[in-house]
Write a structure and sequence with these properties.
Elements (H helix, E strand, L loop, with lengths): L3 E4 L15 H14 L3 E5 L5 H10 L8 E7 L11 H8 L4 E7 L2 H8 L3 H15 L5 E7 L1 H7 L1 H14 L3 E6 L6 H18 L4 E6 L6 H10 L4 E4 L13 H11 L13 H11 L17 E2 L2 H9 L17 E2 L7 H11 L8 H16 L7 H11 L8 E10 L8 E10 L2 E9 L2 H13 L10 E9 L10 E8 L4 E8 L2 H24 L3
Parallel strand pairs: 1-2, 1-8, 2-3, 3-4, 4-5, 5-6, 6-7, 7-8, 9-10
Antiparallel strand pairs: 11-12, 12-13, 14-15, 15-16
Helix pairs in contact: 1-2, 1-11, 5-7, 6-7, 8-9, 16-17
Length: 531
């Protein structure tokens, strides 16, 4: 049976400290997870906050190739009948093909958290699922705190599973919610669950949802699969509450390359690296360079006999080929680091660039220098394509900036400041000098730039600035720190990301804005066959 991958980055992952995503970020990550081949994407708890409600409204208009979105919630409140329970009704209102609800498996939680009798907990598990069953396509049950509950009272923990089966759940997910279970404890518990379900005659799938408080979430998940579990839940990069969830960027390659198990993501696993980086960039968090499989250092080799051996045969110091997960081998003392990645990108962008072309080394060296300055292109593919085209002499100059000025005037302390941007540029030999007011300096720059260019390029009116993020790169320098600005732009056909880096936030924003405009103009030429 194929292994199902269930991603909960958008729900459990966002419970991590300092991990925040906008609704548009969540939509973008959903699309990327779908491209990766994830089977289920848990979008959030629709009854918990307005952002989750907005996400489920927007995701209805998004066509996914493979993944099914799941809404998450709890069993009903004991005082509410199922058809009057706000949480259950919100799950149905979300309109998702899958619904996941959790219930209590640990008698301590039943007594101290829910403050109801043990039999009453069995009742609300069963009738909550029974109410949802006829109205949803896929119904999953998270047995919260199952391993702790089993260790405290195995008979009762198993009874909660039986109630879920009777209620109509098609998959039971065994949760190590506190993350305290060690691998050697997993084996007898899962074997007992399988035997119990066999005794009841229930034909039902089992899943695992592990947290990482004991640094065992990945190991526990893989061990569970080896015992017959067919669904693995986790998050990209292991984000989650406290110490995080089981890390899918480590689990997925292990399932595919080590355990050689069938799963949809196997044919698309070369997108794993870019998925990992995209989540970090949109969450405005640093990349963990030492992370297995997808970290910058995962396949990095520095000097000595390691480099010599790897250059002869990479298997001497690498457990898999980095390209299989979309990463690259990095020989830290070599100018060749990143060459294969450049060639891969060139093919993707439709650029004619051979392995022996000297421009490859030029691009590699420029990329290394820019990354040293703080540029990152995982969420700024448009800027990276423009970089490559400039290096190859293929990038058209649509306009040339001669100068800009941004003024913030705070006339009254109880009123917002007034911001004005002035721009002077050339389109061909025509000089254009414009000014525009805006809601802050970046908005004013954006308006002034498009005001100057729209009469030459009318389709710029179709373009919107969808998102703007600032990341401080060197906090020890305080207000004199270098910043990285990431901008997402869109028109009716596509969205694209651009980046800028500077000690001056206005300059960094300007770089990203200019790349965004240039990419739009280049894209329009390609679409109309004029470029």
């Amino acid at each position: 049976m194929p292994i199902e991958i269930y991603d909960t980055t958008l729900r459990d992952g966002t419970q991590a400290e300092n991990f925040n995503l906008s609704v548009d970020d969540k939509i973008r990550i959903t699309r990327q997870l779908d491209r990766l081949g994830i089977d289920f994407i848990e979008g959030g708890w629709p009854g918990s906050n307005p952002m989750s409600v907005e996400y489920f409204q927007k995701i209805r208009g998004v066509t996914l190739e493979h993944a099914r979105v799941s809404a998450f919630g709890s069993t009903r409140h004991f005082k509410n009948p199922p058809d009057k329970d706000p949480n259950l009704l919100a799950l149905l209102e979300a309109g998702t093909p899958a619904v996941t609800i959790f219930g209590k498996s640990w008698d301590v939680h039943v007594h101290d958290a829910l403050r109801i009798d043990l039999q009453d907990n069995l009742l609300i598990i069963q009738d909550s699922l029974a109410f949802l069953r006829p109205q949803v396509e896929v119904l999953l049950y998270d047995a919260e705190h199952f391993f702790d509950g089993f260790k405290a009272n195995p008979e009762y923990a198993l009874e909660t599973l039986r109630s879920a089966v009777v209620g109509g759940a098609e998959t039971l997910i065994l949760c190590d919610t506190n993350g305290g279970t060690l691998p050697h404890e997993i084996i007898p518990i899962i074997e007992r669950v399988k035997a119990y379900l066999k005794e009841t005659g229930a034909k039902i799938k089992l899943g695992i949802h592990a947290h990482n408080d004991s640094e065992a979430a990945v190991a526990n998940s893989l061990l569970a699969v080896s015992l017959g579990i067919t669904q693995v839940q986790g998050t990209i990069n292991g984000y989650g509450e406290r110490c995080g969830n089981a890390n899918l960027t480590s689990i997925i390659p292990a399932l595919v390359f080590k355990m050689r198990l069938e799963c949809t993501v196997a044919s698309r696993i070369d997108r794993l690296y870019e998925t990992s980086r995209l989540v970090n960039e949109l969450a405005n968090l640093p990349h963990n360079r030492y992370q297995p499989y997808v970290g910058e250092s995962a396949f990095a080799h520095k000097g000595g006999i390691h480099v010599s051996a790897v250059q002869r045969n990479p298997l001497t110091y690498e457990h898999i080929e980095p390209e299989r997960v979309g990463n690259i081998r990095r020989i830290l003392v070599s100018d060749q680091a990143g060459k294969s990645n450049i060639l891969h990108k060139a093919e993707r962008y439709g650029l004619n660039l051979g392995a022996d072309d000297p421009k490859v080394i030029t691009i590699v060296n420029e990329l290394k220098e820019l990354e040293n300055q703080g540029y990152q292109y995982e969420a700024a593919e448009a800027s990276f394509e423009l970089l490559m085209r400039r290096a190859m002499g293929l990038q058209k100059e649509y306009f040339r900036l001669e100068g800009l000025r941004v003024m913030n005037n705070k006339y009254q302390m109880d009123r917002p400041p007034l911001t004005e941007a002035t721009i002077r540029l050339y389109v061909g030999d025509q000089e254009v000098h414009t000014a525009s007011m805006g809601d802050g300096p970046v908005n004013a720059l954006d308006r002034a730039l498009r005001k100057a260019l729209t009469r030459f390029y009318p389709r710029l009116e179709e373009m919107d600035l969808a998102d703007y993020k600032v990341r401080v790169l060197s906090g020890e320098h305080g207000t004199g720190a270098k910043v990285r600005v990431l901008i997402e732009s869109r028109d009716q056909n596509a969205s694209w990301g651009t980046v800028g880096v500077s000690l001056n936030i206005i300059e960094a924003s300007w770089q990203a804005l200019v790349d965004s405009i240039n990419y739009k103009l280049m894209k329009d030429e390609r679409e109309t066959g004029q470029g």
